[in-house]
Amino acid sequence: MLEACHERVQRTLALLGRLRAHVALQGSDESARQAAHDVLRYFDIAAPLHHRDEELHVFPPLLAEGDAAMVALVQRLLQDHQDMVAEWAAARQPLQALADGQASAFSAEDEAALERFALRYARHIEDEEGAAYPAVQQLLPPEALAPMGREMASRRQVIPSRPPARPRAIP
Questions:
Q1: What is the pLDDT of residues 41-100, one digit of tens each?
Q2: How far is the C-alpha of 13 from the C-alpha of 7, rounded, in Å?
Q3: How far is CA 21 from CA 93, 132, 144, 159, in A?
Q4: Which domains does the chain have, with CATH numbers?
Q5: Which of 89, 75, 85 is nearest to 131 (CA)?
Q6: What average pLDDT score do residues 4-28 get?
């Protein structure tokens, strides 16, 4: 489930990249506003739930039983979660303005905030999938995984339902 969340993060970051390119070339239009809404929704709702899952299920065993290098990595991943909150706050503002039709372009400062956020997330995912997730799979007994998955799924049931996504006009 955690890797599936990462796939959604990566798809949303790719949408953000396409949105940035679209706005730079064509400005804001309905497609851009809808894409901004989609990015906002994902990082406002689903991403914090994913971080909570990691903080509840992945990081504690690694902190308790990992070697010094793994403990240092987990501490950095936890710091990333805090930093992502601040970086999302900065990245969120121009996206919200675009989504609300109050902005038609991203400033250089906006672009820098969006880039910082996207780059941190990409590195974060690489560290989790390349080191933290494999390490925790070695530590946890297989029978612990199903209850974790059920708990994660139950937390996601609080996400309001959404009508099916329209195809994006942003290539």
A1: 999 999 999 999 999 999 999 999 999 999 999 999 999 999 999 999 999 999 999 999
A2: 10
A3: 18, 33, 43, 29
A4: 2-156 (1.20.120.520)
A5: 75
A6: 95
